[in-house]
Amino acid sequence: MNIIVPVKQVPDMERVKFDTEAGRIDRSSASGEINPFDLNALETAVQLKEKLGGAITTVSMGPPQAESSVRDSLARGSDRGILLVGKEFAGADTWATSYALAAAIKKLGEWDIIICGEKTVDGDTGQVGPEIAEWLAIPHIAYVSEVREATDSTITVLCELEADRYVIESPLPTLLTVTKDINVPRIPSFKDKMKARKAEIEHWGAAEIADFADPANLGLKGSPTRLNKVVIPSEEGRRGEVFRGSPEDAAKKVADALQALGVLGSAK
To answer: pLDDT exceeding 90 applies to what percent of the chain?
Structure first.
């Protein structure tokens, strides 16, 4: 079974800063790591490989430093790592990103299952996985929380959408987006990490996928999304206030304070 796992390097969201003028994340302000939901996708792929055999290919798109996340995926069980890198891919929105990744997957040739994380922590759209499936004209199932059964020709999964649960069987090839509830990603061993450090990571530019991708649809120029404004909400901690006096006086002060906040409504 040939399994493809698209992964994205994301910044540490607790440390990253935002460039509100340019309307983007300042990725240089924090270290990069594999998107946490992609780790669940990778673990799902490894479990399927252990059951059915085959190979896993990791495909990522990003700047040269994203190679570290591709290597991490090799340490976690992927067999081949490919990084789409080059200025032609810079500034891509979800439409252009999914287009480029789908082109790379077409170049790879045959595949059985593509497994994506539900979403990324820096974008939170959940769009790239299903968009890849649309570009490839294959079925896709979102919000998968369990793989019930898998064969060389079909896969049966449980997907959860709010209060509803669905058991869905799909023929292969197909694409899944998985939630964090599907598994607990394993931690790579020191031996696997050292092996991944020596592994070859393939770098593909726009020229390598030219047979499957129109350059006009790549990167910023191929992105129809336009950002008007970036607003970072302020973080306010809890504020405490002590009301002293007799129980009656304290109660009145509490009521007045709640009324001022609009909790009790306006006085009549």
So the answer is: 69
